[in-house]
Amino acid sequence: MAGAYPWLEEIRLKRMVVSDESLEIIAKSFKNFKVLVLSSCEGFTTEGLAAIAANCRNLRELDLRESEVEDLSGRWLSDFPDSYTSLESLNISCLGNEVNLLALERLVSRCPNLKTLRLNRAVPLDRLPNLLRGAPQLAELGTGAYTSEMRPDVFSNLAEAFAGCKQLKTLSGFWDALPSYLPAVYPICSQLTSLNLSYATVQSPDLIKLVSLCEKLQKLWVLDYIEDDGLEILAASCKDLRELRVFPSDPFGLEPNVALTEQGLVSVSEGCPKLQSVLYFCRQMSNAALNTIARNRPNMTRFRLCIIEPRSPDYLTLQPLDDGFGAIVEHCKDLRRLSLSGLLTDRVFEYIGTYGKKLEMLSVAFAGDSDLGLHHVLSGCDNLRKLEIRDCPFGDKALLANAAKLETMRSLWMSSCSVSFGACKVLGQKMPRLNVEVMDESGPPDSRPESSPVEKLYVYRTVAGPRLDMPGFVWTMDDDSALRIS
Amino acid sequence: MSAEKGYVGLGEVAAMEDTIGLNLKATELRLGLPGSESPVKTTTSLGAKRGFSDAIDGNWVLSGNGNGNQSGSDLALGKDASLFSSPSDKTNKDTLPLPQPSKPVPAAKAQVVGWPPIRSFRKNSMATQPPQKNEADAEPKPGCLYVKVSMDGAPYLRKMDLNNYASYRDLSSALEKMFSCFTLSQCGSHGVSSRDNSNESKLRDLLHGSEYVLTYEDKDGDWMLVGDVPWEMFTDSCKRLRIMKSSEAIGLAPRAMEKCRSRN
């Protein structure tokens, strides 16, 4: 690529293995390189980052969101030369170790266009005011650890520094948050549009106080510590809310640890007329609640519900949640993304196939009774692009009967279902424009009977043919596979 | 290898080809599967990279659940059994750690890999923050403890959840399964075979022999020999694992050096 596009300015990668070597090549080959976004990537170290810092004179954006970086030393940040001032966005929130704080402060204060700064946990709270003072034009801030010995001078310093950031609209970070430091952000709550408290392990009363001041809030990510009461206050205070994500504080615990139920989501659906995007983890749900939510919010476009225990029925009636999700797809005519959970039969898929005409992405787990379920979805959802399925009794028939549909989609993922190796081979043979990839850690699938189910199946359309760089536990079912059966 | 089975498979394949040709409406499609309904696995599901986009471990390296492929054993039971620790664990270094305290987990709840769908970044972040609870903390450990596992000479790393194992032996056999595909090149005079069994036994020989040493990086950043401390202490402090070539292990521990000397 370096040879072909020397004027390349932006590279954005997701879930890829990136080496230090690659970063060095990027740093040295593209003279006008501006944007590097590595989302959930891994394989590189801070040495690679040093190369970027030292060489990319025109870098505007360095975003390492959720990547796994081998953090050898915080020295790399000092490799930005003193003459470098073009940084606009920096996200180092995934780094484990401390960066050179002095170098960071100098960098931040000499870059007048810096709008986004997301620090890592290792940046202590008492260093935050200096950073903020160096960049009063900041629009998006991710704090480091939000805890410190409680001292009035530290607190007031922090509050003053926040108050000085008149353009700050987005806040995140809040690792290890100490509740008594939360009021330091009160001065700017009224201007916030986006708040990510999903790493803040603070309880409901503190969350409520904070959130109720954010009258312009459009996006809130929070832990389930907010509880139903907190969500009720949210519904009353934040009328502009468009997106809500509630994450579980104790996802693997057996008993509920917080008073968060379906009621919280119902309250928000009632009180927030613009709510269109939801991700909600909870431990109980009812058809009645889903029905109410659907009728309250026909403008919903993304609805992802995760009831923590697989196959949980309607907790009031002990029935499947088919009707509830059916109401969602029926009333929310612009629904583009849906994730299902709870006890579900083939009927829910009938609803989805019938009403989910705008649906683009569907996630299914532990649901359905038979191939009919999969068939409804594949034959009914006209705009389906991505389908991911795990642990469902879907097998060969529906898959093969709808093989042509797969070419209209971006990808299909099926794991722990009942698709046989034989069917995968047929699919691979019949559909040359699809890559049909089988993943199996227990060895080559043809060492087992054709009828035995594959662990994982990934099907996607391609113009480039089968991949050649796969690890040993991935097999492509292609035209040749017929020849191998002799 | 699959010649006879392939022949049988072809028959089934032909039937399926017919179904593709037909334009079936839902009502005409005979979708009752022969015999009983396919059993839905409750606990044998393997975590997926692409399973749930909000969610699961975002690497091509599959969440290394070595237990997932024990032939013939019911995964659920396998996992439950491992939750009750065995009284004496023998590591492959022949040390006897102290008897393990049982973990306070009821037998009925078997962990489902990759569920609920939470990104590994979030899992790891939350794991190191003490969650605030209203009542007394019943389960102080995080639900999973993914660490990277590397093997010298292998082209890529793996990930495994240490909470899936209760003993060094479990860990050792899981590692055998996980890295067996890399021992092809090590076979040399043993001959190359694609059968996993022989790969695993070769890997076992390699791991238990003198060529490789199992090490881990602890919380202080030091590289330690696996097996010295009780299992619980190990999982508490282990940040990553490395199957290290013995030639590189000089200086790591006297025991490893002795082994090298005695074998070479």
TrEMBL record, chain A:
Gene3D superfamilies in alphabetical order: Ribonuclease Inhibitor (3.80.10.10)
Q: Which domain of life is it from?
A: Eukaryota
Cross-referenced PANTHER family: F-BOX/TPR REPEAT PROTEIN POF3, TRANSPORT INHIBITOR RESPONSE 1
Q: Know the name of this protein? A: GPI-anchored mannoprotein
User: Which species is this UniProt entry from?
Assistant: Stylosanthes scabra
Q: What is the lineage of its organism?
A: Eukaryota, Viridiplantae, Streptophyta, Embryophyta, Tracheophyta
From TrEMBL, chain B:
- Compartmental location: Nucleus
Q: Which UniProt keywords apply?
A: Auxin signaling pathway, Nucleus, Repressor, Transcription, Transcription regulation
Region spans: Disordered: 65-110
Quick check: keyword Repressor in the entry? yes
What PROSITE patterns has UniProt attached to this entry?
PB1 (PS51745)
Q: Which Pfam families match?
A: AUX_IAA
Q: Which family does it belong to?
A: Belongs to the Aux/IAA family.
Kindly provide the name given to this protein in its UniProt entry. Answer: Auxin-induced protein
Traced from the root, the source organism's taxonomic lineage reads: Eukaryota, Viridiplantae, Streptophyta, Embryophyta, Tracheophyta
